[in-house]
Model the fold of this input.
Amino acid sequence: MSFRFVLPALLLAVSLPGHAQAPVPPAPNGIPLPADYRNWRVIAVSQRTDNNTLRVITGNDIAVEAARAGRTNPWPEGAVLGKVVWKLDKDPLWQPAIVPGEVVHIEFMARDSKKYAATGNWGYSRWLGASLKPHGKDAGFAQECFGCHTVAKGKDYVFTRPAPMP
Amino acid sequence: MSFRFVLPALLLAVSLPGHAQAPVPPAPNGIPLPADYRNWRVIAVSQRTDNNTLRVITGNDIAVEAARAGRTNPWPEGAVLGKVVWKLDKDPLWQPAIVPGEVVHIEFMARDSKKYAATGNWGYSRWLGASLKPHGKDAGFAQECFGCHTVAKGKDYVFTRPAPMP
Done:
C-alpha cells in the first residue's frame, strides 16, 4: 500500500469518533459545554420538591479544591460549577427510594469577573435533555439565571453548600 | 548542622501530615477505607424516604467505566461502589430544596468473587459519621448488608442504576 492511501485512511480512523457524535453547540452567550464534565468530582446533591427533580452538583478542579478548603465567598476565578438535573423515578426494588429518571438538563456557572461582571461575575450556561440542546434564544437568557440567583447574593450567588465528605 | 540532625528532621517533616490526622481503622472484615474515595466520579444519586437521607453513589475507575459501558450485570472484578449518606437539611435560601445535612455514614461494595463469594461476590464496608468509626462488631456485620441486598440479586446485588449523564 502506498503512502497516498495510508495517510487518508489514518486520518479517517482518527476522525471517526468525532463524526460518530455530533458536536454540542455552545450556549447562546458563547459558553461551550465543558468537555469533561462527566469526570468532575462531587460537591453536593439536592432534591427540589418545587419541580420534582434530583440533582448532583460537581465542579472543575478549581471549584472542588475551593469547596474543600472553604474558599467559596467569593469562589476563585476559573471555578466552574456543574449540575445534572434528573426527573424523579422510583427504585422498583426499593419503593421508598427516589432515584434519577431521565435528564432534564445540565447547567454550569463559570467564574470570570471580567467577562461576566454584568451577571454577578458568573457566566451561565444550560443544555436541555439527552440531546443537549442549548437553552436560550439569545445571550439574554443569562439574565433569567442571574435573576433567580440574586437571592443568594450573600453567598456569591451560589445556592450550593458543599456537602461534608469525611 | 550535621547529617545526623538533618535526616531525623527531614523524616519528621515528611511524616507530619500522617500524624496530624489519625488513620481510619479498617472495617471488621479487614476492608480498608478507600483512600481517594472523595475523588471518585458520580454514578447516581438517591433519596430514601424511609430513613430520610440523601445519597451520592460514586465508583472507582473500574466501576465508573463499567457503569458507562453498561457492563453492570455482572459488574467487573475490581469494581468498587461508594456511597455518602447525609441527613436531610433545607436550603435556607430556597425552602423547597432538600440538601445534605450531616454525614450519616459512608459505605462501599467491592467486587471480588474469590474473597467475597459468601456474600454475593461483594465485600461490604461502612464507616459511621464524621469520625468514620468502622461499622460492625465483627466480620459478621456483612451478613446484614448482604441480607438486604438479596432483593437485588437479579441485578448482581446492586440497587443503583447508573444515572444518565449525556
